[in-house]
Amino acid sequence: MHISEGVLSPQVLACGAALTAAGLALGLRSLKNERLMTVGLMASAFFVASLVHVPLGPGSVHLILNGLLGMLLGWAAFPAIFTALILQAVLFQFGGITLLGVNTFTMALPAVLCGLALRPLLRREGRVRLLAAFACGFLSVAGAALLTALALAWTDEGFVQSARILLVAHLPVMALEGLISAFALSFLARVRPEVLTLFSDRS
């Protein structure tokens, strides 16, 4: 879901940079020393999962795992995603340095909001937790696709059709991410239940 360099207007780029700066400030403020390893692992998972791109107009389709990051990291998903995007831009020229703000914001904000909104259900056990995890994965990708589409549409009316295609093309990705999030959370609940203690925190 990376947008290519030279596509967005300076106004959209500046807005994305400012919003991401605010998200990074909140994320770093909530980040505790004992959670650094979890944040690093999740940033690595995001980095690897989103390396395989299927080009689609000015953007691309790929796994994101932002919903999983939103569930487990809260606002710390912002610095995790930002760090991974920097490495992708520098090492593989995915996205771009000028687009770090927009790309980070479009992927991180929906994930954080979904994780926080669904946290009461994620605290519960059994089917309710699995459904909440699926919803978090699905809706986080849906939100990221919507924000990316809006960034394209606000840049130029000529990108409106590309924005629509982007949304439709990510429908299968939304479902797949929901399943991955539910499976991953179920697995973690069995083997590393201490990771889920975030659900009772404010971060």
Helix residue percentage: 55-70%
Radius of gyration: 16 Å
Describe the sheet with the most strands. Answer: 2 strands, antiparallel
N/C terminus separation: 26 Å
As residue ranges, the low-confidence spans are none
* Cα shape: globular
Number of E-type strands = 2
* Count, helices: 9
Oligomeric category: single chain
**Percentage of residues in strands:** under 5%
Order of helices and strands: HHEEHHHHHHH
Q: Strand arrangement, largest sheet?
A: 1-2
Class by helix and strand content? mainly alpha
Protein name: Cobalt transporter CbiM
InterPro entries: CbiM/NikMN
Transmembrane segments: 12-31, 37-56, 68-91, 97-118, 130-153, 165-189
Keywords: Cell membrane, Membrane, Transmembrane, Transmembrane helix, Transport
List keywords for this structure.
203 residues, mainly alpha, two-stranded antiparallel sheet, 9 helices, 69% helix, globular
